[in-house]
From TrEMBL:
Catalytic activity from the UniProt record: N-acetyl-L-glutamate 5-semialdehyde + phosphate + NADP(+) = N-acetyl-L-glutamyl 5-phosphate + NADPH + H(+)
Subcellular localization: Cytoplasm
UniProt-annotated catalytic positions: 133
Domain of life: Bacteria
E.C. numbers: 1.2.1.38
Pathway the protein contributes to: Amino-acid biosynthesis; L-arginine biosynthesis; N(2)-acetyl-L-ornithine from L-glutamate: step 3/4
Name of the protein in question: N-acetyl-gamma-glutamyl-phosphate reductase
Gene Ontology terms: biological process: L-arginine biosynthetic process
Gene that encodes it: argC
GO cellular component: cytoplasm
Length: 322
């Protein structure tokens, strides 16, 4: 049994992490830190956990833990590690973007935590930079092609995400009255997750395509749908075989010829991928839950690998269905 601490536990990713870890057979939650909610029952902020835990949010952390999850937000994670010298035995999993390009701090070097790409390194790591949600869905949809240098043209990507991707703090674009029955683009060709995607693609191939990514805000709460397409003289059967071979030993990423629906992956740690060939173009659809495979579920998957547990421990989650 290992002990886990959570910093920034009152947000969406913190709440998902608590839900998963409460049902993890190998983990005990030692503390859940929240500066704004300290002293309150966790179930007062995450009301679906009523009856699941009597834990309260606390203001301060301690070192009697084995792993620390940082859900503190972009920039705050780096500040936390600058201001607090953690005991050397504590492993760190950061869910922000602060260390995704291989940065180090206080002698801690971070490994990019995409298990389908860096599983061996994650198993040996003490510090993990958890990938971004868009970055996870995009990379899983394209890794088999990029690794074989089969994407050498312009790469067109569109992706739509639920409102929880914007975090728990309200903004003009996350209010229900603005988001419902609405759709809009943002950060066209400039989304911050492109940096980590290109960084990893360069590790796989010398032929990194020009990526043209258009993100959309969707009128729903959870999930990401990515559609990528590029010119490729490759038959659908050959392409499917490449993908199936690449992901054959990955417990959460599945290639299918069935039509996809976002609800298939919501509330799960799965990624579903579908390939189509239309004329000269190969079209790849990849879907995930932005809060689980795109954040907290993947963080637990990384923790499992770091501590030698079965990769899927605590993550056999069921989709809600229709």
């Amino acid at each position: 049994m290992i002990k886990a601490g959570i910093i920034g536990a009152a947000g969406y990713t913190g709440g998902e992490l608590i839900r998963i870890l409460l049902n993890h057979a190998e983990v005990e939650i030692a503390f859940a830190v929240s500066g704004s909610q300290a002293g309150k029952n966790i179930s007062a902020v995450h009301p679906d956990l009523l009856g699941e835990t009597d834990l309260k949010f606390v203001k301060d952390f301690h070192s009697d833990i084995d792993v620390l999850f940082l859900c503190a937000g972009h920039g705050a994670a780096k500040d936390f590690l600058k201001q607090n010298k953690l005991a050397e035995h504590i492993k760190v999993i950061d869910l922000s973007q602060d260390f995704r390009l291989g940065e180090s701090i206080q002698g801690r070097e971070f490994i990019y935590g995409l298990p389908e790409l860096f599983k061996s390194a994650i198993q040996q790591a003490n510090n993990i930079a958890n990938p971004g949600c868009f970055a996870t869905a995009i990379q899983l949809g394209l890794l088999p092609m990029v690794k074989q240098a089969l994407v050498n043209d312009e790469l067109h990507i569109s992706g739509i995400t639920g409102s929880t991707g914007a975090g728990v703090s309200l903004s003009e674009t996350s209010h229900f009255s603005w988001r419902v029955n609405n759709i809009s683009t943002y950060k066209t060709f400039e989304h911050q997750h492109l940096k980590e995607i290109k960084h990893n693609f360069r590790k796989l191939s010398n032929q990194v395509p020009n990526i043209l990514f258009v993100p959309y805000r969707g009128p729903f709460t959870r999930g990401i749908w990515i559609t990528s397409y590029f010119k490729r003289d490759l038959g659908i059967d050959e392409a499917t075989e490449i993908y199936q071979n690449f992901y054959q030993d990955q417990p959460f990423t599945h290639v299918t010829q069935q039509e996809l629906d976002l609800k298939q992956v919501v509330n799960t740690n799965k990624c579903f991928i579908r390939l189509e060939k239309k004329g000269e173009h190969l079209i790849v659809s990849s879907i995930i839950d932005n809060l689980i495979k795109g954040a907290s579920g993947q963080a637990v998957q990384n923790m499992n690998l770091m501590f030698g547990f079965d990769e899927s421990t605590g993550l056999k989650l069921k989709a809600t269905g229709f």
